[in-house]
Amino acid sequence: MAAEIQPKPQTRTPVLLNKIEASQDVVNTAVIIPKEDGVISVSEDRTIRIWLKRDSGQYWPSIYHTMPDSCSCMSFNPETRRLSMGMENGTISVSDCFSHQGRVTVVLFVLEMEWVLSTGQDKNFTWHCSESGTQLGLYRTTAWVSGLQFDVETRHAFVGDYSGQVTILKLELDSCSLVTTFKGHTGNVTALCWDPVQRVLFSGSADHSIIMWDIGGGKGTAIELQGHNEKVQGLCYAPHTRQLISCSSDGGIVIWNMDVTRQETPEWLDSDSCQKCEQPFFWNFKQMWDSKKIGLRQHHCRKCGQAVCGKCSAKRSTIPLMGFEFEVRVCDSCHESITDEDRAPTATFHDSKHSIVYMHYEPTMGWLLTSGADKVVKVRQTRCLLRQRLDRQPNSDLLSTNWSFDQSQIFSHQIFFRVELIEG
Ligand SMILES: [Zn+2]
Ligand SMILES: [Zn+2]
């Protein structure tokens, strides 16, 4: 039997499909409900809302629920329609265990394990059984955690924090062991994204960069992606199109082609004089005296890593295959070696026109949601629909369905809801 060849979905410039502007406060997290024209949002105004698209084309807050405190994060599982919530603070508890003191920063529901992983301002990383609400384990992190991912197959948790490092923990049912830490950022880790197929971890940072940690390759390769001018706020991997989508606080959205092979940037070399013209650098008093020359400032070529003076590295170039989508300093000989073909961008750049606080990507429909500091949620289409359009439910079906919140569990600062879809 001939294998069915699936055409690769074509990508295009994200097209704005809809704006949701009725929120009274900033939406901290929002997710697209797959196969429905719906969005779930949690906001600073303490509400959880489900927005469904009406015939008018506008999203309408079909139901909402008010929480005792504002919701800082959530995790939605489309299969079970389970919504796990992290709270700003408060003492809602039905059991005596308090997993966090203060704001819950990230919450992650893992269906396969029936686990809820969470981190808080108190620097505790905990995991709970989502069925019983029992706390299974706890780990003290070195700094406030802002990114959390989990690999179901190997039970590794990736924990990114404000010190700029990513800690890798192996979780057991009631304990965990420290595997290693990834250090590469010079600013806070702000977002993490795990691709379980390629076994690649992406980390975004306040230092404007993204690092791709290739775990599956087994060679310790870490590739930097430089395409943002501001703090990276979100990272999502689009498996159908093999793209990484990143966004930053200045509203920039970058869509990276991950089908290309990129190289690691070289280590910067140490030298007391320019490795091209041999003029001394300013701390090299002996050579300055001997050769009666003025010391120069040291720079580094981003392509070869050599220590060079300003005169020998006056030119700039993009080096997309090293992750540099913006022009960077290169030495004269490297500048000559870079061809126009080498300069072809491997990413596309888009403006969301609001300061992004949160981003979510829904892979089956190719929809990208951004929530902004302007209190607006925007939904964009990132690829041309092929067969997906046929799978979509007509709107009339949606109108005959009702949604309700069934609060199934509360423990410590996390609240679980099962969002039921009742056929009308
Ligand atoms: Zn020089
Ligand atoms: Zn060079």
Give an account of the 3D structure.
By secondary structure, this protein is mainly beta. 5% of the residues lie in helices and 49% in strands. It is built from four helices and 32 strands. The chain has a four-stranded antiparallel β-sheet, with no helix packed on it. Strands 2-3-4-5 form a four-stranded antiparallel β-sheet, with no helix packed on it. A hairpin with a 3-residue loop joins strand 9 and strand 10 (124-129). The longest helix has 7 residues, at 285-291. The protein is globular and about 80 Å long. Residues 90-98, 386-402 and 406-424 have low confidence and may be disordered. The structure holds zinc ion (ZN) (2 copies). One zinc ion (ZN) binds next to helix 2. One of its GO terms (cellular component) is early endosome. GO terms for molecular function: zinc ion binding.
SSE topology sketch:
Layout: E1 11-20, E2 27-33, E3 38-43, E4 47-53, E5 59-66, E6 71-77, E7 82-87, E8 104-110, E9 115-120, E10 124-129, E11 135-140, E12 145-151, E13 156-161, E14 165-171, E15 176-183, E16 189-195, E17 200-205, E18 209-214, E19 221-226, E20 232-238, E21 243-248, E22 252-257, H1 285-291, E23 299-300, E24 307-308, E25 316-319, E26 324-329, H2 332-337, E27 347-351, E28 356-362, E29 367-372, E30 377-383, H3 388-391, H4 395-399, E31 401-411, E32 414-423
Antiparallel strand pairs: 1-30, 2-3, 3-4, 4-5, 6-7, 7-32, 8-9, 9-10, 10-11, 12-13, 13-14, 14-15, 16-17, 17-18, 18-19, 20-21, 21-22, 22-27, 23-24, 25-26, 28-29, 29-30, 31-32
